[in-house]
Structure formats: C-alpha cells, structure tokens
Amino acid sequence: MIKLKKDLINKVVFLGEINSINLEIICNSFEQLKNKVNYYIVGSKYKIEKYLKRINNNNIQINYIKDPINFNLKKNFLNIFDVSYSKSDFDELNIQIRLCNHICNLTGYDLVTMPIDKSVFKKKINFIGITEYLGKLNKVGTFMLMKGENFSIIPITTHVSIDKLGEKINTYSINKFFKKFIPFYNHIINRYSLEKLKFICVNPHCGEEGFLSNRDLNIKNLLADLPIKINGPYPSDSAFMKDTKNCLFFSTYHDQALIPFKLLNKFSCNITIGLKYRRLSPAHGPATDILFQNRSNNLSYIECMTI
Questions:
Q1: What total of structural domains would you count in the chain?
Q2: Are residues 1 and 129 in the same domain?
Q3: Distance (Å, rounded) from C-alpha 112 to C-alpha 114?
Q4: Do 244 and 289 lie in a common domain?
Q5: Across the chain, where does the E strand assignment appear?
Q6: Percent of the chain, pLDDT > 70?
Q7: Which tens digits make up the pLDDT trace of 194-214?
Q8: How much is the pTM?
C-alpha cells in the first residue's frame, strides 16, 4: 500500500549527474518541499552517500525505499530508491532514466529529471537530449515547452546545427509541428495560464516582405489557416521587448528564443509535452564550475517540483 500525503503533488526525481550541483540543490530545497510534494529520488546509494559526506550535510536523514511502485515514504526523510550499477556511468544513468520512465508510465506521477552530462550518453548512442530520448523510448513525438515566470517558449527545432537549419525550417515541417501541437493546445493554455501565442520570424525583419526571403510570408499564410489563433510572425529582435506576460512564443530554432528566455526569466522549467506523464527539468546545467561551493540557485528546481 502506498502511503502518500493527500492532496500533494506526486513526483519521481531522476538524480542525473552526480558530479554536479544536482544533489546540493535537492538537499537545500528539502525543507521547502517536505510538506508540499510527495517525492523520492532515483540514484546511486553509494554515490549519494559519498556526496553528502563531501558537503558535510548531516541535517538530512535518508530513507531507502525497497520498491519504486509500492513504497512507504517517511516523513522528514529524503526518500531514495537505489539504482547502483558500476559497469559505466552511461549504463547506470541509462538504467535509471529508463526505470523512471517505466514508473511514471505506470503511476502517472510527474518525472523531474535533473541535468546530465550529455557527453556520457553521446559516447554510446546517438543522443540529442532527454526530451528526444524519452520520445524515442515511448515511440511518440515530443516537444519542449520552456515555462518561465514572465513568458514561455516552444522551439520547433531544438538541438540542430546552424548549418542544417535551412533544410529543417519550411512550411511543411512547421505545419507538421502544429499538427502535433494542436491536440495539446487546450491543456497547455489552461494549465500554464498562457493568454497569447506568438510566432517568431525566421529571417531578419520577417524577410522584408519577400526582399530577403519569402519564407516568412509563407509561414504567415500557414498560421492564418490553422484552427487556433497564433499571431505573427514577429521580428525576433523586438518580439520580447513588450507585451510578453503570460505569452507563449514559438521559435523556429533553439537559440533564437532560448537566449532572450534565459535573460528575461529568473527561473524556468523545461516541460516535455507528448508523453503519458509530465516530465519537467530545471533550466540549468550540471554547473561543475561551482561544485561543492554551496552557490547554486534552487528556484528552477522548486518551480519544477511545485508547478
């Protein structure tokens, strides 16, 4: 029998890269979350205990749960399910993320994934990111919603080299994306209180009415034919300057929207759309440059755990 506090959010947290600020953030957020969220961490017992000794954290008691599906969470304890696998870092992390995916598919709990070192995965498999990897595991199309306190964004292409963008961004691919987006439209708009939808131009000044390129004119015609209202396209050099509160921007490539998004939002949450469950991730990296310095910011993690 699963003993959970009633009326609290249920989450499974994939610890991710141990040589990072991940566990520091989790520990520093423990008091804020213990009466707000039902959650446990999936990670390596040996590595977690070694890390806690390094940061001299004696204030948090650990409870190791034996079954990730039928479990008892102890109050005032950091609850952890141990998945230790010493063959390689890739095998350990891969087993952990696959297990988390399986658990959340069975339970419907949110999955919160802490940052990883992508090079660990890239050495073994063709890996772009967790968003795409979870889509591949579940054989569904996924896309990224970056939710910030000021505005949110969805990049239509994510981790694509700049020299390959031209062939990826066209009316066919954009129309294909919106066919994938529209079934989730009402859920996204209502759950995350998004009031306006805006599309960002591909070219400077939206192609100067066809002088630079006709691509943005074709996109404008495509948007007009959609069954949902999306305004634009808007020039990316001015789109984020005003009227952005509770706005969702669609960008055609990663950095076009991620740069202003990270500059203008103090904290943010990466939400994967398209899975049976909700996957969230704080919008920061492993931050190894400040490892063991207790300088990490937990706002994005708190957002992922409480949204």
A1: 2
A2: yes
A3: 7
A4: no
A5: 9-14, 37-43, 61-64, 77-82, 110-113, 143-148, 151-155, 196-200, 231-234, 247-251, 268-273, 279-282
A6: 96
A7: 999 999 998 777 767 767 678
A8: 0.90
- Six token digits for residue 136: 């591949």
- Do 12 and 126 belong together in one domain? yes
The answer on 181 and 60 residing in a single domain is no
Which one-letter DSSP state was computed for residue 72? B
Task: For residue 130, give both structure tokens.
Answer: 């967790």
Tokens of 160: 């694509």
Residue type, 222: L
Q: Which domain holds residue 201?
A: 150-264
> Per the domain annotation, does 144 fall within a domain?
no
Asked if residue 115 has a cis previous peptide bond (ω within 30° of 0), the answer is: no
Does the CA dihedral 50-53-57-58 come out positive or negative? positive
Instruction: Name residue 208's amino acid.
Output: E
Q: Is the dihedral of CA 228, 234, 237, 242 positive or negative?
A: negative
Given this model, what pLDDT does residue 1 score? 36
Tell me, yes or no, whether 202 and 235 share the same domain: yes
pLDDT at 6 over 60: no
CA 282 – CA 303 distance, rounded (Å): 8
pLDDT value for 210? 67
Per residue in 68-119, pLDDT (tens digit) is 998 888 988 999 999 998 788 999 999 999 999 999 999 999 999 999 988 8
What is the chain's Cα-based Rg? 21
Residues 119 and 48 in one domain: yes
Write down the pLDDT at residue 26: 95
- CA pair distance 46, 294, nearest whole angstrom: 21
Question: The domain spanning residue 219 has which CATH number?
Answer: 3.40.718.10
CA distances from 120 to 88, 91, 123 (A): 9, 9, 6
Give the residue with greater pLDDT, 162 vs 135. Answer: 135
